[in-house]
Design a protein that fits this description.
Blueprint: E1 9-13, H1 19-28, E2 33-37, H2 40-46, H3 52-61, E3 66-69, H4 78-90, H5 105-111
Parallel strand pairs: 1-2, 2-3
Length: about 120
Amino acid sequence: MTRRSHKPFILISYAYMSKPMLATLLALREDITLTVDSGAFTAYKLGKKIELESYMNFLATSKLKIEHYMNLDVIGDVAASKKNYYKMLDEGFKPMPVFTRGAPTSDLEEYYETSDVVA
């Protein structure tokens, strides 16, 4: 049987992004398949806030080869999470929508109209 080689899948939280982490990911960018999570839950637990504009700027300007990324959800605020998703779409991004706790199932169906994958 032949062994199929593939690039390792890496999931990184934007909340943990630092200069050393970015440098490591840049060095590996041709050898990995990268997915970026907004890090909203991590930031929430640390009492920090992630600004949507900063997150979008990172996604747009980093030299990483980002295969997938999630929208910036807002912990405990279904409407704000959904608003961020549509703002990202309006700005030309194609994020993976985050179906947040407490959201109606109709949101899930709505997300599938604009994305093949829902987190």
